Amino acid sequence: MTDKILIGGVERGNDFRIADRNHLLDHMLDLVKNAVASVPPNRLIVAPGCTVPSDIPEFRLNLLKEAMDTVCEVDGQTDYSFHLRPIRPASNTL
Prior knowledge:
Elements: E1 6-10, H1 21-38, E2 44-48, H2 58-71, E3 73-74, E4 77-78, H3 81-84
Parallel strand pairs: 1-2
Antiparallel strand pairs: 3-4
Helix pairs in contact: 1-2
């Protein structure tokens, strides 16, 4: 696996186009869980790999945030720390 930070997990257009809110949330939950499971800790930013089309309503983006909140909930608290801890540079890069 890589020592780089990866951005992805969500396809920029089609993943946001599911019409039903509950189906879209379930889909986002699956995407986030799969992305988190496939990347080492501290190496993932869950997001579309590029941009989101401008015709995607904001509430659909909020469902991605809601999915992240659900996946990252620990003991009743939202904890993104497994993604946000600083990454120590290799000693030869200082």
